[in-house]
Acid phosphatase 1 (Elaeis guineensis var. tenera), 255 residues
Amino acid sequence: MLQFHRLLLCFLVAAVATSQTHLEMVAEDPSGGLADDPKVQYCESWRLAVETNNAGEWKKVPSRCVDVVADYIKGPQYLTDSKMVARLSHAYAKTVQLAGDGKDVWIFDVDETLISNFLHYTLHGYESRMCNETAYDQWVYTGKATALPWSLWLYRKLQSLGFQLVLLTGRKEHHRNSTEQNLMAVGYRSWKKLILRESLDATKTAMTYKSEKRAELEAEGYTIHGSSGDQWSDLLGPPMAKRSFKLPNPMYHIP
């Protein structure tokens, strides 16, 4: 029995020492040692932090994760994740009792929600370099963004259910023609409104701007049943939709 107690005591001392060592490591490295993990594991954890909004107002993709982000966007997992969001959105939409007065609304963001700017960000390092607004403006004018297939699927399903679709984007008013042409070219039709930033909105954060536009819609008598966006700033801030759905986007962050 004495021998057993000695072994138990040794085990407890070792456990406490191990725990203390771990606590010291965390104190020195708040990432919990993630920096020592293999690159892909670290970058997948970073991507999860982005999607769950734990990363906060991050500025750019870590340089070590650029190729991992690119592989994700180009690979099957991005489509699978987008499909899951679309399917869950549709499942919710089918439960909504519409008033049928033309005021039942679903809001969509545009960039990385309805259409993908993947080709543009391929050339600009997936925001591993700071955003070049001039280059982005030039890209928007080309109208070459492609449809996100599962968003197009959801868009059409919502139309068939009787929702009015409002497109609320951070693109500027002078992008209206190129944006409309791009959307129609890839299959989007018959939206109720396309709302873009006007000059008075230029200095507002995305969350403030989009919150104000939702409030204006409600003041006009619209009921916002659902909202889809790739940024948390597309979705948060009063008044919010009755249900909001976040699409994946580890390429850039808009506060």
Observations:
- The longest helix spans residues 2-28.
- The domain at 37-246 is CATH 3.40.50.1000 (Rossmann fold).
